[in-house]
Design brief:
five-stranded mixed beta sheet, Nucleotidyltransferase, domain 5, alpha/beta
Length: 139
Amino acid sequence: MRIIGIDYGRKRIGIAVSDDEPATAHALKTLANDGSFLHLLRQIIAEYEPVRLVVGLPKRQDGSLGPMAKEADAFRCSLEKELGIATVGWDERLSTFAATEALKEAGVDSRRQRQMADGVAAAVILQDYLDAKQGGTAI
């Protein structure tokens, strides 16, 4: 039973996937947010057969939904309708920061960090969701 995590961005979309348990998230790839995105996501879904998609919502520090979080939530709703897979929006505050810091600590150069950050951010979002689910707080 796999779950896919998504870090939505206007230019790039990070994708992560859980293991079969699901207990651990792994960065998978970063896709361009262009006309090919949905086709490529369908291929990923066919390969991994997830039961759910977790889409990060970049909430404000006070927990409210700003314009980008509303855009990400609309994206989540369109994915659910288009793909017929259950989706959940998940608070992703500071996930990109956490991903960038993890890449720095791993010694990844700044050019590679930019290429990898969205996929790693998707893994941070998904891992947070998985951890909360194990603690009984995820829906």
